[in-house]
Backbone:
């Protein structure tokens, strides 16, 4: 059955709803901004599927034949061989084999990219987990208990972020050498945790302050200890804040370059200092660097998309009351 | 269920004393209302009984056991918060069952008791709903359900009807009292609304600035207020005060106000010369042409069953509750007569009621309390 519903009154000067025109202009601006920020990413992706000569040709090529050479070079090390030697080989076993042979080379073995990428994953996610766990507990303490000198402590915690990493890198380098932590995943995890925990405490304190303490008090009266009340009542309600904080911590730890390039060189090296060092024949192997960068973007993209609902609610917290 | 005994309870937040020296006993199964204006220390008192706040001094006994410094979780009490504090991430059933879960009650038993409680409160049809969508009254019932499901030693409620609209509040007042009549749980109910307190409570403790001004039954508080503060706080419109300056001897039965002699209950103590106030409830005033105490009609509010007529006298405005039939003209001069044995005399300097035949009971109790306290002090 179709009844004619009165259309909601559209007034030109509605205070609450922005007008259609305003919405359109805002939409256009957002799209324009998105395009501008996306151009470098698109460029990197395009470079990653160019052949090395195409990647450095001038003027830059918009149209080109896609090639997997960048990705192949990223994951492998190669040695140069004579054409006779290559011709004598059995047929190529895969795409990369074939691509490599066209350049008169053979695959010698895997490159360091996978282990470096694994380091990045372990260190970034590990330190995020530590920073958020510690930060949640500390924020809860600051939010709920009378901590002597709470304001000074909070300021002190924040002040650890005020210096540029380079300023503290040398002392940390010396300390880490003494402690046997330099070039270890544990060392990097601790370092990123220390840097991120200040951000985590501040962000999470804001979120936990918003959770009425009556919830925990109700739980404690109902027979739970404070710790149980924390886990059963506070944590479930802080998930939004925790997700938002985790993303911020992860982005920092994932992208961090300065400490990583100074404190890691071998087994604990993360992807950011490794990727720019990929060298091909006759200099920088741009397609391989671009391929590494493209792959490097994936985890953070997935993580952010998975948590985007919480993130959106989290970033606008305070502005929107429940 | 258990009796709650509060002894010389005191709470200071730094310099500020929120609760001065409270002593009262809530008998097993009794409904006590802690009544007073905002900021007088009601919530603080309740939170100390609950164990959410530690007292600065004094003691709290629950069912004979000293719980003053025990954790909230070990006191076996239930607390209904002003804003209900229903856990938003759990549905109604989980909210009500949450206290049982902490006691390790088996799942099937929890289910049975939650459903039994829901039936009692008539919320069995919303058990599987999320609490965030509930209407005010249902939130209230869920909070009550979470409180009674465990059959705790006592219930503490902090202005549980404060956020409901007036109409619905009446319904909940009745429901709460009926619930109390059925389960006889020792209850401390905090409110700033005298009507709620009068309607529900067996006993009322009237608080002011951290002090319990009077602790008695609603009738006694209404009829024999211990202080001008209580007399003024209870009743709508409140008690009238006719101020005059005099000194009165023990046995006096007449107060001379504005040149007119007014009969009152016989005094049981001397009153030194100073400012006094005769307290008269609006319903204890009649208009009588013969009375020498005179005034002019100032205004009238028609209430249907009766009317409130305001009279301007030399001693200030006096409000009388009179039958609704007659109408009065503003400016008309009338004589005021009082029901003599229902009047209270207050000493304005202390604000306390002067002992009289009417106030005997109140004071006798006070002295007994003090004697017992002295006795205990001797033994201790
Ligand atoms: N944690 C606290 N710290 C400092 N002052 C407090 C605290 N809790 C309550 N107070 C003060 O104590 C007084 C009594 O508060 P409260 O018991 O909540 O009053 P009521 O419930 O009667 O409105 C108020 O003046 C309040 O500001
Ligand atoms: Mg209060």
Residues:
């Amino acid at each position: 059955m179709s009844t004619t519903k009165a259309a909601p009154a559209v007034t030109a000067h509605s205070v609450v709803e922005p007008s259609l025109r305003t919405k359109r202009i805002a939409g256009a601006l957002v799209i324009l901004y998105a395009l501008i920020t996306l151009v470098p990413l698109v460029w990197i992706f395009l470079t990653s599927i160019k052949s090395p000569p195409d990647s450095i040709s001038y003027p830059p090529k918009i149209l080109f034949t896609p090639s997997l050479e960048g990705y192949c070079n990223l994951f492998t090390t190669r040695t140069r061989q004579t054409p006779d030697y290559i011709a004598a080989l059995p047929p190529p076993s895969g795409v990369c084999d074939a691509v490599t042979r066209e350049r008169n080379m053979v695959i010698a073995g895997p490159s360091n990219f996978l282990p470096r990428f694994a380091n990045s994953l372990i260190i970034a996610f590990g330190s995020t987990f530590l920073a958020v766990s510690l930060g949640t507990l500390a924020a809860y303490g600051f939010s709920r208990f009378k901590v002597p000198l709470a304001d000074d402590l909070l300021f002190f915690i924040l002040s650890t972020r005020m210096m540029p990493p380079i300023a503290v890198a040398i002392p940390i380098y010396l300390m880490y050498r003494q402690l046997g932590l330099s070039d270890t995943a544990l060392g990097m995890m601790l370092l990123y945790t220390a840097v991120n925990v200040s951000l985590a405490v501040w962000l999470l304190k804001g979120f936990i302050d918003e959770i009425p303490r009556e919830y925990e008090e109700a739980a404690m009266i109902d027979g739970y200890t404070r710790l149980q009340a924390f886990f059963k009542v506070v944590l479930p309600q802080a998930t939004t804040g925790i997700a938002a904080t985790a993303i911020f911590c992860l982005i920092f730890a994932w992208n961090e370059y300065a400490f990583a390039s100074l404190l890691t060189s071998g087994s604990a090296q993360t992807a950011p200092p490794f990727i720019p060092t990929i060298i091909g024949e006759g200099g920088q192997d741009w397609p391989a660097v671009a391929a590494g960068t493209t792959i490097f973007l994936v985890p953070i993209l997935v993580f952010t998309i998975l948590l985007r609902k919480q993130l959106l609610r989290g970033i606008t917290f305070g502005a929107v009351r429940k | 269920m258990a009796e709650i005994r509060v002894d010389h309870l005191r709470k200071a937040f730094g310099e500020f004393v929120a609760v001065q020296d409270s002593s009262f006993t809530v008998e097993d199964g009794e409904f006590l209302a802690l009544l007073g204006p905002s900021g007088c220390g009601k919530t603080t008192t309740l939170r100390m009984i609950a164990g959410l706040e530690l007292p600065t001094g004094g003691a709290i006994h629950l069912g004979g056991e000293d719980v003053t410094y025990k954790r909230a979780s070990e006191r076996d009490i239930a607390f209904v918060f002003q804003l209900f504090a229903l856990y938003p991430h759990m549905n109604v059933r989980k909210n009500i069952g949450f206290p049982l879960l902490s006691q390790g009650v088996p799942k099937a038993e929890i289910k049975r008791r939650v459903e039994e409680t829901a039936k009692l409160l008539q919320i069995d049809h919303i058990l599987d709903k999320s609490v965030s969508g509930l209407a005010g009254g249902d939130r209230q019932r869920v909070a009550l359900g979470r409180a009674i499901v465990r059959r705790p030693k006592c219930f503490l409620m902090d202005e549980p009807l404060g956020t409901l609209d007036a109409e619905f509040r009446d319904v909940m007042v009745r429901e709460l009292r009926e619930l109390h009549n059925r389960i006889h749980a020792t209850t401390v109910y905090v409110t700033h609304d005298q009507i709620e307190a009068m309607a529900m409570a067996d006993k009322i403790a009237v608080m002011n600035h951290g002090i319990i001004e009077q602790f008695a039954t609603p009738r006694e508080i209404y009829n024999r207020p211990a202080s001008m503060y209580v007399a003024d706080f209870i009743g709508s419109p409140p008690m009238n005060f006719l101020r005059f300056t005099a000194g009165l001897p023990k046995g006096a039965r007449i107060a001379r106000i504005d040149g007119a002699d007014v009969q009152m209950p016989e005094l049981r103590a001397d009153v030194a010369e100073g400012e006094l106030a005769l307290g008269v409830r609006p319903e204890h005033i009649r208009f009588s042409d013969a009375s020498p105490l005179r005034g002019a009609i100032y205004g009238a509010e028609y209430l249907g069953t009766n009317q409130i007529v305001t009279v301007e006298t030399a001693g200030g405005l006096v409000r009388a509750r009179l039958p609704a039939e007659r109408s009065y003209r503003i400016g008309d001069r009338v004589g005021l007569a009082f029901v003599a044995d229902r009047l209270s005399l207050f000493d304005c300097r202390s604000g306390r009621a002067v002992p009289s035949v009417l106030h005997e009971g109140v004071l006798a109790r006070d002295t007994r309390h003090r004697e017992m306290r002295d006795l205990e002090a001797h033994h201790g």
Summary: The longest strand of chain B covers residues 16-26. Confidence is low (pLDDT under 50) at residues 363-373 of chain B.
